[in-house]
Amino acid sequence: MQKEISFWPLIDFQKMSKREIGDYFAEFTNAVPEQLQRLHIDVNRTPGFDTWRADETADSLLDLGKWLSTHTETRMRTPEELNAIKSRLTMDVPISRRDLTDLTIARAARVGIYLAATLHRNHPDTKWTYHVTPRNLADYGQPILSGFPNVDFNPVRIGVVLARGVADGKRGADRLAELYAFWSRQAPTS
Amino acid sequence: MAKARAAILLCAGIVSALVAPVRAFAQQAQFGPIGRPVEIGRPAVIGTPVTIGQPVVIGTPVVIGQPTTIGQPTTVAKPIYVARPTVVARPTVVGRPVVAARPRVAGYPVVVGRPARIGVPVAVARPAAVGTPMAVGSSVTVGRPTPIGRGTAVARPTQIGTPARVGTPTVTGRPAAVGAPAASSTAASTGQPASIGQASASTAQPSGQTASAVAGASASSYHISYAKLGTSSPWRASLQKAASAVAAAIRGRGQAAENELKVLGGDSQVVFKTPWGRRVVDQLADDIGNEAKSGLQYLTQSNALQIAKDAYLRDTGHIAQSFWHFFKNSDTGQGGPSKPLMKALDDADIPYVIY
After folding, report:
1. Which end of chain B is more exposed for a tag (fewer CB within 10 A), N or C?
2. Which neighbouring-strand residues pair with B353?
3. Which residues lie below 8 Å from residue B165, measured CB to CB, with a gap of 6+?
4. Angle, nearest 10°, between helix axes B301-315 and B339-347?
5. Does A39 score more than 90 pLDDT?
């Protein structure tokens, strides 16, 4: 068992040195098999999903999307978190008092990693990497799957954005399969 | 005598050698083809009739005259306006300038005039406006959201992204949709100026937009269009909250544009990579990419490209949604999107608010 790895947005990559980013990247890529295994176990524990297999096929994403749609949980933000958000606002406006739980963020990240692994398996020209320029890059320092024409696949961001959408009722269970189809169409054909 | 004859022949040979390329050049200039490898600068207007050879990289911005035959394999840069009638031969990739040797199957903005014939296989990236009537060949991939005009014959197998609108009378696919900044889709052919939505007072709906596609927001301070999201969409609350906060900020301080979006929190000027270059999101808050526009805004190539990038970021899951904010210009007091721009946003399922 490797040490527990944290994911964006629980990590602020902007505050990390390039060396720390490099270390995180190595840690992240080494942890991918374990994260996939944990996802597999987590899904199989759920009644109705005990036969789900993490075989990295497009079909497997259909059931995984259904699973995620029933496993996104939110929590009340702490006063410290609310104050931190308010301190960055230029005026007092209503802010959301709820956010994803840390467990849901980890699940969402693993779902994103599984999506990346599925893309990588079916499009072997893609590879894991990270960027440290420009500084205001949305994916700054974060592990990404590159090899797509001019764009990168950020599994954690995509997983978390999906989970937030599901939690808010803005996205459905089929969104994960849609994402795979979209990215797969853009992947390089070898 | 023999020397003189030899000298004459030599001179004739030299003249012939000099004239031949000039003649060839003249023929080429008149009838094409444009040889290989050729890079055509920017801006460039390619006359008619012209055959563009292979491989060719066409710069940007480019207007290709009519009738034009584009050879294979050809990479056509963006943004490009393909005139009518235009035949895009196969296999043609209409897309960005190629950085590496590898061709790309993506491109925007592309407007294929009418009548036009797109060969096979051609990938037209979204949101491409395809004219009507036209024939789309087999193995054609048309991205989403792509309006397909009336009278379009679509061969099989053809993959049309959803929500593609086939045969919708409101979609004209006229070339003016891109590259004619101050022209609406109908005004383009006549050169009439476009009608522009008037900032906060605007309740004008884009042409062809269904009544249910637009929902008014609160009071008179702003007006939200939810595009195809629908008024019952769970997005409604999030967007109204954001618009309300920005409207309050405007009332409170009288500032405009990008600065107002900071009230939404999150991060400013966040860079995303897209197939069409970087997209700098003015304010990324709650996974919503907020874009600020000040003054009168038209469906320019720049705005069309931003729409495509935003739709791409949403569809690829990097952001949850894009939301455009139109502010009045503090100097002129005018602001808001033109009807073609509103329609382009609606077609791309991007909601917007006019303050």
Report:
1. N
2. B224, B325
3. B145, B146, B147, B148, B171, B347
4. 20
5. yes
Confidence of residue B201 (pLDDT cuts 50, 70, 90): very low
A3 assigned to some structural domain: no
Residue-range definition of the domain harbouring residue A92: 16-186
State the ipTM, two decimals.
0.85
B27 C-beta neighbours (distance < 10 Å), count: 10
CA atoms lying within 13 Å on the CB side of residue B22? 6
Rounded mean pLDDT, A160-164: 93
A1 domain residue, yes or no: no
Give the C-alpha separation, B288 to A161, whole Å.
10
Measured CA to CA, the distance from residue B345 to residue B304 in angstroms comes to 9
**Longest distance between any two alpha carbons in chain B, whole Å:** 102
Highest mean pLDDT pick, A85-89, A128-132, B113-117: A128-132
- What is the per-residue pLDDT for A54? 93
How far apart CA B168 and CA B179 sit, in angstroms, is 23
- Give the Cα separation of A40 and A56 in Å (integer): 11
Strand-pair partners of A42: none
B interface test, pick of A133, A161, A178, A190 with most B CB neighbours within 10 Å: A161
Query: Would residue A158 count as lying in a domain?
Result: yes
User: Is the CB of B234 less than 8 angstroms away from the CB of A151?
Assistant: no
The domain total for chain A is: 1
A161-178 average pLDDT score: 90
Which amino acid, one-letter code, is at B104? R
User: Residue B287, Cα to own-chain centre: how many angstroms?
Assistant: 25
For B254-293, how does the pLDDT look when each residue is reduced to its tens digit (9 = 90+)? 555 667 787 788 888 999 998 888 999 998 988 899 998 8
Cβ separation of A91 and B235 shorter than 8 Å? no
Predicted structure pTM score: 0.59
